[in-house]
Amino acid sequence: MSAPCNVVVLISGSGSNLQALIDSLDEENPVRIRAVVSNRAEALGLQRAQAAGIETHVVQHRDFADRESFDAALMEIIDVHQPQLVVLAGFMRILTPGFVRHYQGRLLNIHPSLLPKYKGLDTHRRALEAGDHEHGCSVHFVTEELDGGPVAVQAVLRIGADEEIGALTERVHAAEHIIYPLAVRWFADGRLRLAEQGAMLDGDLLPPTGYLLRI
């Protein structure tokens, strides 16, 4: 087993991806979730963390005059736990360049589209309206470009004929719960890392789409 990998998870809402990470933990998994931090005190994900015996913190963005001061307070709390990896799991804040640089190479996010398609919000509706035959989700390293960092892994789904947005949303969520724990485990095992040329897995440069998993 690899040496323990300290992880801090940032959330804003229900924390379903956090729960998937918690459920993936076992004696063979080196991931250790040291803390969960939310910018919303009412986030259900905080209860999920507490039920699993994980320390929680709330840093409410509205208590700060600007993004820089909020991010500085966030970093102060995160760094107490000395994480090798910071995981964004439905954290609905745009991070400052200073924050991103501070955690460069150890900051992962999950996005509900096959990046580089559909950066930003409302991705499922956009995929359906474009008539796409495939959709999915991407785990990527975070850079200063919004939803633009190198992709580690993507789950690819076929869009069914006349598929409704609700059904597609649920299928993508289920795929997220598969690939996020996978990518975090790869990082903890030392298999996944960010190099100057992009994301690397087992020493090989990944393509722009990352490792593809068809579900």
UniProtKB/TrEMBL annotation:
Sites marked Raises pKa of active site His: 147
Family annotation (Pfam families): Formyl_trans_N
E.C. designation(s): 2.1.2.2
Group of enzyme by EC: transferase
Catalytic residue list: 111 (proton donor)
Binding residues annotated for (6R)-10-formyltetrahydrofolate, in chain numbering: 67, 92-95, 109
GO biological process: 'de novo' IMP biosynthetic process
Gene Ontology molecular function: phosphoribosylglycinamide formyltransferase activity
Top-rank taxon: Bacteria
Annotated positions binding N(1)-(5-phospho-beta-D-ribosyl)glycinamide: 15-17
Keywords on record: Purine biosynthesis, Transferase
Catalytic activity as recorded in UniProt: N(1)-(5-phospho-beta-D-ribosyl)glycinamide + (6R)-10-formyltetrahydrofolate = N(2)-formyl-N(1)-(5-phospho-beta-D-ribosyl)glycinamide + (6S)-5,6,7,8-tetrahydrofolate + H(+)
GO CC term, one of those recorded: cytosol
Pathway entry: Purine metabolism; IMP biosynthesis via de novo pathway; N(2)-formyl-N(1)-(5-phospho-D-ribosyl)glycinamide from N(1)-(5-phospho-D-ribosyl)glycinamide (10-formyl THF route): step 1/1
Domain Formyl transferase N-terminal: 6-184
Keyword Protein biosynthesis: no
InterPro entries the UniProt entry points to: Formyl_transf_N, Formyl_transf_N_sf, GART, GART_AS
Biological role: Catalyzes the transfer of a formyl group from 10-formyltetrahydrofolate to 5-phospho-ribosyl-glycinamide (GAR), producing 5-phospho-ribosyl-N-formylglycinamide (FGAR) and tetrahydrofolate.
Family statement: Belongs to the GART family.
Protein's recorded name: Phosphoribosylglycinamide formyltransferase
